[in-house]
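DM from R.C. (forwarded with permission)

"hey, sorry to bug you on a friday — could you get me a structure for this? deadline for the figure draft is monday and I only need the backbone to look sensible"
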Amino acid sequence: MAAKREPLSCWLVSEGRVLASANLANTRSTRRRGLIGVGHVENPLVLSPCKWIHTVGTRIDLDVAYLDAEGVVIKMIRVAPMRFTTPVRGAHQVIEAAEGSFERWNLRLGDRVEVRGQ
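My reply, with the result:
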């Protein structure tokens, strides 16, 4: 039986300030599992590589940011449970966070986010 893989711990940093401690899903199994079944998001999840997400199996609204290969935020949306998004051209990574996180972080389109510790 194969060992269960868990997302790696990392930090989200923008313009020298730490936004949050996060989890990095960078394997097929961790990306596939994502936030399915989670009722509360303690730490944001970074999916890498990733161009689109779905919220089938989630129970909460998510803030979702799409980052290009340089970590620049190219799209931000809020996604309700049981939804599919369309692929975002130029996206390389996706951050999924609890609803309201981006507002608290003051995250905006065009900001650069570094995923440290990956």
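R.C.: lifesaver. Residues 8-116 form a domain with the Jelly Rolls fold (CATH 2.60.120.1140).
me: no worries. The chain has one domain: 8-116.
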